[in-house]
Every structure is written in C-alpha cells, then in structure tokens.
Automatic annotation (TrEMBL):
The keyword Magnesium applies. Monomer. Interacts with DnaB. Belongs to the DnaG primase family. RNA polymerase that catalyzes the synthesis of short RNA molecules used as primers for DNA polymerase during DNA replication. This is DNA primase. Keywords: Coiled coil, DNA replication, DNA-binding, DNA-directed RNA polymerase, Magnesium, Metal-binding, Nucleotidyltransferase, Primosome, Transcription, Transferase, Zinc, Zinc-finger. It comes from Orenia metallireducens. Binds 1 zinc ion per monomer. Contains an N-terminal zinc-binding domain, a central core domain that contains the primase activity, and a C-terminal DnaB-binding domain.
Length: 606
C-alpha cells in the first residue's frame, strides 16, 4: 500500500515490540551489565562488539559502527524500506494495519494478498503435518531419509507431503472458509474441465515450501516420488504474492549468514540448498528454475557484494546461465564460478566431500571472465588454426567489456600467454571491437572491421604460419601436376602433421582417391569433400600454373619439414605453457616430464 503510516501508529508499533526479543531472532545475546551483547549480525566477527540497550531500546556495534532503533535494525537485517519495516513489526506485534480509505483498489489488493498469504501458511502446515505426523506421509518420509535429511531440517525448511488424493487440500481450505475464486487465484487449486469441480495442483509429491526473504510462505515446489509419466518437479504458478523471477529459494534462512560473510552461493535446486544448509554451508540460495534476473541480483545486493555460482557442469556452460551471470555483474556484484566435478551437482558433491571439500572448491572458484574464457576454449585445439581464430574472436568480445584498465592488462598478459600469441595482437583486436561497438563504423560489421581471418591468423602466429600455408599450397600444386609423387609424399607425411581442418580433409581425400584409382580427378575428389574451405582451396590450386624445379622430391621433403616444424613449434609452445603452470602449482615432477618432452621435440627439429 502506497501511503505513510501516522506517527501515532509508528509509536504504537514501537511500544509493542521489544528490541531484545527482535534482535535475539538474529543473534544470541548475553547479559552484560545494564546492556546485552552478542556477535554482530551485520558483519563477521569472533569477539562480541554488538551491544543492545533495553532501556533506551537502541543498539550499536563498536566493530562496524551500525546502530539505531527497532526500525533501523529490521530495515538493515531484512534489506527492506521503512514502510515495510513498520508493517513487519506490526504483524509481529499482532497489530492491524490502519485502513486507507482514499484508495479502495489498493486496499482490496492488500486484503487479497493478506488472505493468500494466510492460505499459503495454512497449506505449508497442512503438508508438513501429513509428512511428519501422519501415516499418509510415509512415502515422503522415506524419500527424504534416503536423501539424508533429518527431522530438524524438515521442520526448518517446512518440508511436507501432498497426498495422492484429488481434493485433500481443497477440502481442507474450503473448511477454513476460503472461496473457490480465491483458492483458484492461489494457484494451489485447479478447476476441472466443464466446471465440474476443483482439484489439488500437488498430489503424491514431496513438498518444498517457498518463502520470500521476510519468511512469508508464497509458493511451493513438488517432487514426484514414483516413476510415473509426470514432470519430475511441479512448481506454483506466478500469483500476486509469488513471482519466481523476484525471489530466491532459501533466502529467508540464508540472509543473515550471507550478510555476515558478505557472500552468497547460488545453486540450482531445492535439495542443493537443503543439503548445503545441513552440512553447515548456510549462505546458499537457489534460483527457482529460472535464469538469474536483475530483480534477484538486486535482492542479493542488499546482503552481499560477492556471489558464487555452483551449478552442475552441464548447466554452467549454457548460454542462459552466462547471461544470468552478466546480470549479476551489471548490478555491481563480484561474480565467481565454483567448478564442480563432471556429472555432480552440489547436493551430491557436498555429501561426497563434505563442508571442507566444498570450501576448497569455493577457494578455487574462477572469476566470471576466467570462466567465460574457459568456456570458450573448452573443446578447442589451439594447434588447430581455425579453432584458435574463433577462440580469439570470442575472447576479444569478452575482454572488450572489461572497464578496469589494470584488470584488462592482467587478462591480456595471461590470455596471450595461454593462446601463445602476442599481447599486441590481442590488444589491437580489442580496440577494433570497441570501435565497432561504439557504432563509429556502421558500414562494416565486426568480421570486416578486424583483419581478415587469414590476416588475423598471420598476426597470431607471425611468419611461421605464413611459411606453413605456403608449404601446403606448393605441396598440393606439385602433386596435382605430378600424381606419381603421392606415394613418396604419403610415406613422409602424417595427416596429424597438418594444422587446419580443410588441409586434413583435403589430403585424406586425395590419398584415398589415389589409392583407389591410381590417378587424381579433381571433379570427382570435389564431390567427396564436405569442408567448404577445402573445396575452395582445391579449386584455387587446381588451376594454378607453377614452374617446378627438376628435383621435385627434394622440394617435397623441404615443404614437409616446414609443415612438421610448424606443428612441432606449436606443441613446444603448448608444453612451455604447461611447464609454467606446473611450476606455479609446485608440481616439479610434472615439470621435469614436460621439459624432457620439449627436449625430445627440439632434437627432432635438429
């Protein structure tokens, strides 16, 4: 409701709430002279510096300097404004909020919200009773025990069970006096076809109660416990009290721990949150099955500056997830990604490795930029020129958004080393990308605004790649004019010696065709090639006019050595990068093994 409360009402709320009772819900207070003291709920500390004066009804922390009355405390600890704080404390004291006759629509909406919150609170108790105190919940109890959830956790998270009955909840709520119209608006009850009655949305499911950050029940998630042809999870629809894009599962319990540590951990599922909490990792929330939104980011920003993402490996690579991480970053949050072992979600990982194992993974979390770059490079071979070019283009788009110059400098150094290319080339491409993004060259897109792919490839690998590409072309030209030299070529050249995909496919098809027909027919070979770049190269070289030296076998050997030498140098650079990594991590055994491999490769080139 959009109106200010009167001073009289605010004083009434103040009078009916005791600051000791309120603060005791968030931190343990001990008597200390005329005051009480405890660990500050606003910052992480080991020695109590937070004092509460019951006579003055005020608090102050000598550690972080926060202080005030009951309204200041609730505003700070809950991350809400003054009006919401008054409302929260009034509800706590059992005071009815004053009516606002000037806006009947607002009052009607407020009253409806209040009733829907009542319905959801009753529903949570109903499902929890069936789970914990009735034979009906036996299957649900067995499922939760199998997942390792104890009775304390069941109560703290208000877990429940929806029976395998069509109208159990409907009849329970009807008996409480709620209308069919309101029950339909709650999303908990559905209308049968042809207006023949109503039935429960959740049936034969373990129930996860969803509360907002103030602890009010606003929705539910239900997990099926039998292998039937139904969705594994079923969630409440959006209502006037529940919008999944504006809420986070578990925040009502996690917020004080998030605030104390100044860190939040986001996971995917209900059980991920509950398992983490049970193992003592209590600053954890879940994103309710949606990509992270700006509303959720703003909500987290109230309590912390740093957010860790702990999704399973499959989800963490999804584009929607990356967009969600960008949203967190845009809201001013520091974002880090916890990399979990393949095929493990947080629930499984924590049960296997415990709190200590998870803490170790958290300490090794990647920054958002590092995570994006790892995603770009995953599955790509830096020995493959095409993969390298694609990787550079995508990495440039990521680095161009880094605003901090010192941070950008560090990333340019690190990535140029990882890509085995010059820092200058990377910076040049970043500048060109930024130029295009500013819209200063609307006639050309990014592909045309930077170097052509061949120019970029040349820049990335300097003169060595130029010599390699020339050797490939000349070698192909020779065998097109002299197919009888293919046997000699094949005995000296392995397909894996070639750096580009189109080269590997082209030579493979040529060798296969010559083996079968003892000659080369360009048109027929073209029909067997799927790579467009390989086709274009074959067409280009098939019409090229070359004058060759008499000692063509010697020429072939020289070109083959150039090709092999290029690949050898690429492997040496990759190994040198791994040697540096092994040196930094203190793995000297691996460092020595890699150095031996480099020495062997260098001997091959001599």
């Amino acid at each position: 409701m959009s109106f200010a409360y009167s001073e009289d009402f605010i004083e009434q709320v103040r009078f009916n709430n005791d600051i000791i009772d309120i603060i005791s819900d968030y931190t343990r207070l001990e008597h200390s002279g005329k005051s009480y003291k405890g660990l500050c709920p606003f910052h992480d500390e080991n020695t109590p510096s937070f004092f509460v004066n019951p006579e003055q009804q005020l608090y102050y922390c000598f550690g972080c300097g926060v202080g005030g009355d009951i309204f200041n405390f609730i505003m700070g600890v809950e991350g809400i404004d003054f009006r919401e704080a008054v409302k929260s404390l009034a509800n706590r004291a059992g005071l009815s909020l004053p009516e606002h006759k000037a806006n009947p629509q607002a009052k009607e909406k407020f009253d409806k919200k209040k009733k829907l919150l009542q319905i959801h609170e009753l529903t949570a108790r109903f499902y929890n009773y069936l789970l914990t105190s009735s034979d009906i919940g036996e299957n649900g109890n067995n499922y939760l025990k199998q997942r390792g959830f104890g009775n304390d956790i069941v109560e703290e998270f208000q877990l429940g069970f929806a029976p395998d009955r069509w109208e159990a909840l409907y009849r329970f709520l009807k008996n409480k006096g709620y209308s069919d119209k309101l029950l339909l608006e709650s999303g908990l009850i559905l209308a049968r076809k042809n207006n023949t009655g109503y039935y429960d949305r959740f049936r034969n499911r373990v129930i996860f109660t969803i509360s907002n950050h103030q602890g009010q029940v606003i929705g539910f998630g239900g997990r099926i416990i039998e292998d039937v042809n139904q969705p594994k999870y079923l969630n409440s629809p959006d209502t006037i009290i529940f919008d999944k894009s504006k809420n986070l599962y578990g925040l009502n319990l996690a917020k004080k721990f998030i605030q104390q540590s100044n860190q939040a951990i986001i996971v995917e599922g209900y059980t991920d949150v509950i398992t983490a909490y049970q193992y003592g990792i209590k600053n954890v929330v879940a994103s309710l099955g949606t990509s992270l939104t700006s509303e959720q980011a703003k909500l987290l920003k109230r309590y912390a500056n740093t957010v860790y993402i702990a999704y399973d490996s499959d989800t963490a690579g999804a584009k929607a997830t990356l967009r969600g991480l960008d949203i967190l970053k845009e809201e001013g949050l520091e974002v880090k990604v916890i990399i979990l072992p393949k095929d493990l979600d947080p629930d499984e990982f924590i049960k296997a490795e415990g709190k200590e194992g998870f803490a170790k993974s958290q300490s090794q979390a990647e920054t958002l930029i590092d995570f994006k770059i790892s995603n770009i490079l995953r599955g790509r071979s830096l020995e493959d020129v095409d993969d390298k070019i694609i990787a550079v283009k995508e990495i440039v788009a990521v680095l161009a958004k880094v605003k901090n110059k010192v941070e950008l400098d560090e990333y340019c150094k690190k990535i140029s080393e990882r890509l085995r290319t010059s820092e200058g080339v990377l910076r040049k491409e970043i500048d060109k990308y930024k130029f295009k993004m500013r819209g200063q060259d609307r006639k050309s897109n990014y592909r045309n605004n930077i170097n052509t792919e061949r120019e970029l490839a040349d820049a990335l690998n300097d003169s060595r790649l130029i010599k390699y590409l020339k050797a490939i072309k000349e070698l192909l030209s020779i065998i097109f004019k002299n197919p009888n030299l293919i046997s000699s070529l094949k005995s000296q050249l392995e397909i894996d010696d070639l750096a580009k995909k189109e080269h590997r496919e082209l030579f493979t098809r040529i060798f296969e065709f010559y083996h079968e027909h003892n000659t080369l027919e360009i048109n027929q070979i073209l029909q067997t090639i799927t790579n467009n770049d390989a086709k274009n190269l074959l067409l280009e070289l098939s019409i090229k006019d070359n004058d060759f030296l008499d000692d063509t076998e010697k020429t072939i050997s020289d070109y083959i050595e150039t090709i092999k030498g290029y690949q050898r140098e690429m492997r040496i650079e990759r190994l040198n990068a791994e040697i540096k990594k092994a040196e930094k991590s203190g793995n000297f055994t691996k460092q020595m093994e890699l150095m031996k491999e480099v020495q062997l490769l260098r001997r091959e080139g001599n």
